[in-house]
Amino acid sequence: MSPAPASAPPPPLGAARGRWRVAVGFAAGMALSAALVGGGVLIGTQINDDPVVIEQADTPTTIAARAESRTDLTPATTPPPGVGDNPDVEPVTAVARALSPSVVLINTGMGQGSGIIWDAENGYIVTNDHVIGNAATVSVLFDDGAQVSGVVVGGDSARDIAVVQVDPEGLDLVEAVFAPTETVVVGQLAVAIGSPFGLDQSVTAGIVSAVNRINQFGGSDPSNPVTVEMIQTDAPINPGNSGGALANKDGHVIGMNTSIRTDGVATANVGVGFAVPSDTILIIAERIVDGESLELGFLGINGATPTDGTFGALVSLVVDGSPADDAGLKVGDLIIGVNGELVTTMEQLSADFKFFRPGDEIEIEVVREGERVMLQVTVGSN
């Protein structure tokens, strides 16, 4: 089902905010090495580029995404329906009934994807940045058949997240519930809802195949890839699912479906899909609507993961005059913690560091010549 593109933007909604987009460079200022294991595609139907997907080992919870929570937003205009314990209702059916009212089809006129109602009172919808592309206005189709114009509030190419706003007046908006990323475990039920190939309100199911999967070529800009952390699932997702919901058995959003692994030839689903975690969605969406900087933090090191099975990020180069240099990091230091959270790999450090903003004060723990050393770092600007 393909809605017509928006003919005109709606009047200003909420606080006056212009649309803005940030192009980002090298994540956290860290040079990383990786082995290419397969092709990959973003799954908004307007996208033809083929950024690769990198497989890495699972890692612990992220450093900064756990530190922020969505506590300042007004409750949903319409409470989301719950998933009951009725034994006569199949689990996936119960999830679909609960969450489908919160999932929309987004049409830019040049392509289409999906979106999730995030803040019902203010009409905010989250989606992928690559779904929006360069559009300033979009058409939004709701599960009840209502179709309205929306304005693009802003987008973040590093995390591939964008926010669209519609006028909630007269709409029965149902706000989705987002589950904390730390509750997501391998093997749990994963239900994907979106609009593959424009088929709105399509539901597929599988499991969570991996958590904290590191993709070194993430983001919506293939020319500026950024290391990101994602949820891997075998729930079938295809072009048009981008921006849609990946949900748990309670009908709560655990991620935003974003990309799929391919064999480098076909672009159809082969059972390896990736979703932006819920914590990341909420942090970045709030920064966008609040007009905050989306610039990535800069540390200023090169490094690698030890090959002897040791956890951590081994520093091989410190950029002169960088925040790392100013803090006293040295070549040979093994970074094992940031703000009290364990660092297991260089790739994880790079993915987690992107949540820090220029000016943030953080504490880095290193092992230097067999001794543990604590260093204070002021995050820089890349």
Written description of the protein model:
With 382 residues, the protein is mainly beta. It folds into two domains: 1-294, Thrombin, subunit H (Beta Barrel), CATH 2.40.10.120; 297-381, Roll (Pdz3 Domain), CATH 2.30.42. 10% of the residues lie in helices and 36% in strands. It has five helices and 22 strands. It has helices at residues 91-99, 129-132, 278-289, 323-327, 346-353; strands spanning 20-22, 28-31, 39-42, 103-107, 112-119, 124-127, 137-141, 147-156, 161-165, 189-194, 202-218, 226-233, 245-247, 253-262, 273-277, 297-304, 313-318, 334-338, 341-342, 361-368, 371-378, 380-381. Strands 2, 16, 17, 18, 19, 20, 21 and 22 form an eight-stranded mixed β-sheet that branches. Strands 4-5-6-9-8-7 form a six-stranded antiparallel beta barrel. It is globular.
Summarize the structure.
With about 375 residues, the chain is mainly beta.
Query: What's the helix-strand series?
Result: EEEHEEEHEEEEEEEEEHEEHEEHEEE
Helix content: under 10%
* CATH architecture heading of the largest domain: Beta Barrel
User: Outline, from the CA principal axes?
Assistant: globular
Radius of gyration: 20 Å
The number of helical elements comes to 5
What percent of residues are in strands?
35-45%
Main sheet? 8 strands, mixed
Distance between the termini: 42 Å
Find the CATH topology of the largest domain.
Answer: Thrombin, subunit H
The overall number of domains is: 2
Mean pLDDT, to the nearest integer, reads 80
Unreliable residue stretches: 1-40, 46-77
